[in-house]
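From the methods appendix. Each design record in this collection lists the tokenized structure first, followed by the designed amino acid sequence. Records were kept in a plain field format so they could be parsed without special tools. The example shown here is representative of the layout used throughout.

RECORD:
FOLD TOKENS (428 positions):
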């Protein structure tokens, strides 16, 4: 395989950062193709912790890194992240990082609109990260986004911003937020143009060349399949397509050839923000999973909701993304549970489902069918050999494989890079 597409198979926070870092060793290039700084990918390398939101994880290993057109970019967040990561000794220059000239920008009015809508008293709350992601994608589809290539010509930029504000100012007025003048935004962008210019390129041509040269490209997904704007638990989703087919759209490679889709899967389940969560354990089990798994959002610090692994959702993700193999993470969080449960089907209004009905709301009660597996009561943390796992842990892994019909490519047993059991290298 020349290309690996890494996606989250759940609601994000599956531990993609570590796996992408692990895989980036074999990659010639790493590409972000959707989302923005709502993502939080944590890498631990020689005990040094790197928290990345916008930068592709390849930067830490000095691999060519690309931010594709499918991302929404907050220049100020990027500048801050580059500063923080550079302070850890990683040199981020234009030889390492390239950003697509057609990437839409997140501007101050997107952030303000996101927050204002989440704080309104009526209507549905999504529990967004408040980063302006949704409003920026709305502008892209509404054909009024300011793209990276627009900011270098002040005269045309002003017209484009006026066009965007023609839409935004009446909404701001309605929400009781002060209207904005185009000059403000022009000045804000002008102040960032010198910093960003060296990174701005046509990246689709470069990536297609890399593909033709049979280089290994790693596509780094953010969030998870169940947060996909089309295929997730709508409306409690993010505003981008998070599934594997977005890798091509969000980078400009029409057809990704020879690719392996790796679904990162946590051994239990979490979600942050609002929305349905059939196997949620709003009880001492959920508390224990959250404490042992340190389930707090990397970006917002919010406490994540926790529950048992849901095979129905996992199979749904696997089908929608064409997952070839799974990377199973955080198995060690289950080490001290007497009994471990896995959901295998739902019943809703008397009918059995092998997928999540799209009309489900957080208030709907689904009848869940679980299977129960004995725990192993032994530490698996740091284990690097499948044979060394306790027999019930092996049984758990094998049951997941059987129930989903998908191979397990990797098993991660701690945040440390080398604490990984390899069954199949996705690049080979
Ligand atoms: P937004 O992406 O900020 O618009 O948030 C929409 C929904 O996606 C909220 O429920 C967020 O908590 C969730 N979300 C966004 N990014 C992530 C992520 O990286 N991990 C987990 N959940 C996320």
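DESIGN:
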């Amino acid at each position: 395989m020349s290309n690996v597409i890494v996606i989250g198979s759940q609601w994000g926070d599956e531990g993609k950062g570590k796996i992408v870092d692990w895989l980036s060793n074999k990659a010639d290039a790493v590409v972000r193709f959707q989302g923005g700084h709502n993502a939080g990918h944590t890498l631990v390398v020689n005990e040094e912790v790197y928290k990345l939101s916008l930068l592709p994880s390849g930067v830490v290993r000095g691999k060519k890194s690309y931010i594709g057109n499918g991302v929404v970019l907050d220049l100020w967040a990027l500048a801050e992240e580059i500063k923080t990561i550079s302070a850890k000794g990683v040199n981020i220059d234009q030889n390492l990082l390239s950003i697509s000239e057609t990437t839409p920008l997140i501007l101050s009015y997107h952030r303000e609109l996101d927050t204002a809508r989440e704080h309104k008293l009526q209507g549905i709350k999504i529990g967004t990260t408040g980063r302006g992601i949704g409003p920026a994608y709305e502008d892209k589809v509404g054909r009024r986004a300011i793209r990276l290539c627009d900011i270098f010509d002040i005269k045309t930029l002003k017209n484009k911003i006026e066009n965007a504000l023609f839409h935004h100012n009446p909404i701001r007025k309605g929400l009781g937020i002060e209207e904005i003048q185009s000059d403000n935004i022009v000045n804000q962008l002008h102040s960032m143009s010198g910093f960003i210019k060296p990174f701005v390129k046509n990246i689709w041509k470069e990536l297609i060349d890399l593909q033709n040269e049979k280089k290994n490209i790693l596509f780094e997904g953010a969030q998870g399949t169940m947060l996909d704007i089309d295929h997730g638990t709508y409306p409690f989703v993010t505003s981008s397509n998070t599934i594997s087919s977005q890798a091509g759209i969000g980078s400009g490679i029409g057809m990704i050839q020879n690719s392996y889709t790796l679904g990162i899967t946590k051994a239990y389940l979490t979600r942050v923000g609002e929305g349905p969560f059939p196997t949620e354990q709003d009880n001492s089990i959920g508390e224990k999973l959250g404490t042992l798994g340190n389930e707090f959002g990397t970006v917002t610090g919010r406490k994540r909701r926790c529950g048992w692994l849901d095979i129905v959702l996992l199979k749904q993700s696997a089908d929608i993304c064409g997952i070839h193999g799974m990377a199973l993470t955080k198995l060690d969080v289950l080490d001290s549970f007497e009994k471990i449960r896995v959901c295998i089907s739902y019943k809703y209004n008397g009918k059995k489902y092998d997928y999540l009905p799209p009309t489900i709301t957080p208030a709907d009660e689904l009848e869940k069918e679980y299977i129960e597996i004995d725990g192993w009561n032994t530490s698996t943390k740091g284990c690097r050999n499948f044979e060394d796992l306790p027999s019930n842990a092996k049984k758990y892994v094998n049951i997941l494989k059987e129930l989903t019909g998908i191979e397990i490519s990797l098993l991660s047993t701690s945040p440390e890079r080398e604490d990984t059991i390899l069954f199949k290298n996705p690049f080979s």
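APPENDIX NOTE: Residues 11-13, 38-40, 126-129, 131, 133-134, 222-223, 227, 236, 238-239, 272-273 surround inosinic acid (CB under 6 Å).
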